[in-house]
Design a protein that fits this description.
Layout: H1 2-7, H2 12-32, H3 35-38, H4 43-52, H5 58-67, H6 69-79, H7 85-103, H8 107-139, H9 144-197
Helix pairs in contact: 2-8, 2-9, 4-9, 5-6, 6-7, 6-9, 7-9, 8-9
């Protein structure tokens, strides 16, 4: 493996660093974007029950704020429970934008890695071919071993760049879709809270 890396030249260093960063981001986002951690089930129903029983206190709202991203959004609305529907909805939307920004953390970096690693591989290919033509100019085409180093560097960096870019792009698309689904779920739950609080629908 070390010989493979060395044969690829100095451009293998940024490609390897990109692969490490991509792996770390994917692992962290899979851990962070668990559905039960982001949007726990039956949260609105539990809040509504406390509200109906007259047990919804500031302490409950504070606990809700700390419990999950969805809880944070709902808590923002509950702080304004005595205001009009439009005010409550606007506060929830503002809190939701902040939560969405946190859910998308590092995804732009992962997308950037998926975009630049093929270009790094291509750059390695160009550098390798330049070495090949330089060797041809200096030694002619009679000795294949003179050309092998440049050709090897060109192929290795291209393969390495694609090997990092392809899974990075796949995971980027998957995680972006997961965030979109979670955002949609949180929007539905938030709207449900506003409507049940203002008597526009049943909590169930």
């Amino acid at each position: 493996m070390l010989e493979f890396v060395l044969a690829g030249g100095w451009l293998m260093v940024p490609i390897i660093l990109c692969s490490v960063a991509a792996l770390a981001i994917v692992a962290e986002r899979f851990w962070a974007l668990q559905s039960d951690k982001i949007a726990p089930r039956n949260l609105v129903a539990e809040i509504w029950k406390l509200h109906q029983d007259g047990k919804l206190t500031n302490q409950h709202i504070e606990q809700l704020h700390r419990s999950s991203p969805l809880g944070r959004i709902l808590a923002a609305g509950l702080v304004n429970i005595n205001h009009e529907r439009i005010v409550m909805k606007e506060v929830i939307e503002e809190s939701g934008r902040q939560v969405v920004s946190e859910l998308e953390r590092y995804l732009n970096t992962l997308g950037t890695i998926a975009s630049i690693t093929p270009l790094l591989g291509l750059l390695g290919t160009v550098i390798g071919m330049i070495k090949v033509f330089s060797a041809i100019t200096a030694h002619g085409v009679g000795d294949p071993t003179v050309l092998a180093g440049g050709i090897s560097e060109a192929l290795i960096t291209t393969a390495a760049g694609l090997s990092v870019a392809i899974p990075s792009l796949m995971f980027y698309r998957h995680l972006r879709g997961k965030v979109d689904l979670l955002v949609l779920k949180m929007e539905e739950e938030s709207l449900k809270l506003v409507e049940v609080i203002h008597g526009e629908r049943e909590a169930g």
